[in-house]
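Appendix C: a fully annotated inverse folding record. The material below is reproduced so that readers can follow the format used throughout the book. The structure is listed first as tokens, followed by the designed sequence.
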């Protein structure tokens, strides 16, 4: 388990497989070229490579792409703590963009701060990585609402 994040027990022993399957259904992540990496109870990492099709007019990775991967990391971090047939929807988030999106790849880290019966509060961070060195470029707080997901068996 990654050091420094809260530890909460999962309610579904198959949380990792369920989370990876749910991530695979997100077509926006496919469009961005993002992949899910580390999946632990209450903690998820998503990696997105630099790509010309996700830039804004100044040549930086668009804030929308950064926001999308951080929001998704936060959402799937929350999902890791949910029982089967329960998912999450983002109800709100606030993002601070601290540096331009430049780098070889971008690592979004989502961590559950407080799991709840109706709302789960998460913290997201995005790091730009170049030459193996990481720089924090964005931080997010996000609230996730629990929703039933009937018919989704993973």
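Designed amino acids, in order:
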């Amino acid at each position: 388990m990654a050091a420094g994040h809260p530890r909460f027990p999962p309610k579904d022993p198959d949380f990792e497989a369920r989370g990876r399957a749910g991530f695979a259904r997100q077509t926006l992540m496919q469009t961005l070229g993002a992949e899910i990496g580390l999946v632990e109870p209450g903690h998820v990492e998503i990696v997105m490579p630099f790509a010309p099709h996700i830039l804004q007019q100044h040549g930086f990775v668009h804030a929308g792409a950064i926001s999308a991967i951080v929001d998704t990391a936060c959402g799937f971090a929350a999902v890791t703590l949910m029982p089967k047939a329960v998912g999450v929807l983002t109800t709100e988030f606030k993002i601070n963009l601290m540096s331009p999106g430049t780098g070889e790849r971008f690592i979004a880290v989502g961590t559950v701060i407080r799991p709840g019966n109706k709302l789960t509060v998460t913290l997201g961070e995005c790091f730009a990585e170049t030459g193996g060195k990481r720089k924090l470029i964005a931080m997010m707080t996000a609230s996730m609402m629990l929703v039933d997901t009937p018919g989704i068996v993973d």
